[in-house]
Amino acid sequence: MMAFAPAPVAPRAANVGFDLRFARTCYDHLAGTIATALYDRLQTDGTLSVTSTGIALTPAGGRRLRPLGIDAEALRAGRRPLARACLDWTERRDHLAGGLGAALLTSFRAQHWVTPRNTPRALRLTQAGRRALATHFDIDVSTLTPA
Known about the structure:
Blueprint: H1 18-22, E1 24-26, E2 29-31, H2 33-44, E3 48-51, E4 54-57, H3 59-65, H4 72-77, E5 84-87, E6 94-97, H5 98-110, E7 114-116, E8 123-125, H6 127-137
Antiparallel strand pairs: 1-2, 3-4, 5-6, 7-8
């Protein structure tokens, strides 16, 4: 019977507050609506190359992230994977994890683009962060809505 039954659909995260769905941490990297939009943009602008065998930071992508204080060569020399997909539990799509995902969150925090909220793991995107996402990544935050 199970072979003929339709695949179960994961429930939407409707009971999760907007703040937590929009921007939060996932271990040591960014998650939520902002993170999935960023992951999509990094693919479409050629910063990341995503294939069936994995995720690679392109040479142009490494140069592009250098002004944010991200040293791609140092990340590649580390023990953890440079980049990997991480399924976002509220968006039901991938966001970026690995050393690069952690480095982006560290950079965003250092530049005060995101700051902590009172809810554990939730982050507030600052006005500087909104401008930076538009400038550096061509992401218009006003068009983003959580799943």
